[in-house]
């Protein structure tokens, strides 16, 4: 039954295209921040690296963020790319880039912007390792299509919309505004687009908290995750 609902609404969902991701969606930012923080802790605290290389402790599983649905899927997608992403983190944000091991200052605007640009480079590096991004940083459409099909192959509730999700994400990537940094935004746009469409296409029986989910979806529907700008209130009448 839910497949019919999904199929009927998917066109409306995919029309809401996000042309670029500018690190302004709080839900996805938390996932990114955790990844970067975990890497930096591994870099600066050797005991963290030892624990990371050991098998995951069943009593202390990795933190999963509250989503509309697909928490296990999102975790799996990130876990499957852990090795290649870790290599790219070390290459882009590792000791050669920061020889003095100076921790990131979370309150410094310049540092935040540099971090964002480096994360674009991490995802570009990862995409190149997975053969979906070319040497110039551009997505390779056919390879990308096959890659996402493989990632979503076992997700039954996305089966009917998988092709439209891929087509929509390729359109987002093509139309994305160019990054001002040295790396292109194709990898980042792709990551956020897939995340967004998984959340917007959750069937009812997969949603655990409908109130939370509707608020999250509203944030995802807003252009580039930016808050809607409300008109100013009317002036107070003169006394």
Could you provide a short overview of the structure?
With 239 residues, the protein is mostly helical. It contains ten helices and no strands. Keywords: Secreted, Signal.
Estimated helix fraction: 55-70%
Question: Could you report the average pLDDT, rounded to the nearest whole number?
Answer: 78
Order of helices and strands: HHHHHHHHHH
Could you tell me the strand content as a percent range? under 5%
Protein structure class: mainly alpha
Report on the architecture of this protein.
The protein has helices at about 1-15, 25-45, 45-55, 70-80, 80-95, 110-130, 140-150, 160-175, 185-200, 210-220. It contains ten helices and no strands. It has one domain. α2 (about 25-45) packs across α3 (about 45-55), α7 (about 140-150) packs across α8 (about 160-175) and α8 runs antiparallel to α9 (about 185-200). It is mainly α and about 240 residues long. Residues about 1-20, about 45-50 and about 225-235 have low confidence and may be disordered. The protein is about 55% helix and about 0% strand.
Which SSEs are present, and which pair or pack?
Blueprint: H1 2-15, H2 26-44, H3 46-53, H4 71-80, H5 82-93, H6 109-129, H7 141-151, H8 162-175, H9 186-200, H10 210-221
Features:
239 residues; mainly alpha; 10 helices; globular; disordered C terminus; PBP_GOBP_sf
């Amino acid at each position: 039954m839910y497949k019919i609902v999904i199929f009927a609404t998917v066109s409306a969902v995919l029309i809401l295209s996000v042309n670029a991701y500018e690190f302004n969606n709080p839900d996805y930012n938390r996932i990114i921040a955790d990844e970067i923080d975990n890497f930096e802790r591994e870099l600066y605290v050797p005991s963290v690296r030892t624990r990371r290389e050991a098998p995951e402790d069943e009593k202390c599983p990795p933190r999963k963020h509250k989503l509309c649905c697909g928490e296990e899927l999102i975790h799996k997608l990130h876990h499957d790319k852990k090795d290649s992403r870790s290599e790219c983190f070390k290459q882009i944000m590792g000791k050669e880039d920061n020889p003095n091991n100076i921790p990131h200052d979370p309150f410094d605007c310049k540092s935040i912007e540099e971090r964002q640009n480096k994360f674009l480079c991490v995802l570009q590096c990862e995409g190149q390792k997975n053969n979906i991004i070319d040497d110039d940083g551009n997505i390779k459409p056919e390879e990308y299509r096959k890659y996402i099909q493989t990632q979503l192959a076992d997700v039954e509730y996305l089966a009917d919309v998988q092709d439209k999700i891929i087509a929509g994400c390729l359109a987002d990537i093509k139309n994305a505004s160019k990054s001002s940094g040295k790396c292109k935004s194709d990898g980042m746009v792709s990551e956020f687009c897939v995340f967004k469409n998984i959340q917007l296409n959750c069937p009812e029986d997969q949603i655990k908290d409908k109130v939370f989910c509707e608020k999250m979806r509203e944030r995802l529907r807003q252009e580039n995750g930016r808050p809607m700008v409300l008109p100013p209130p009317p002036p107070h009448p003169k006394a």
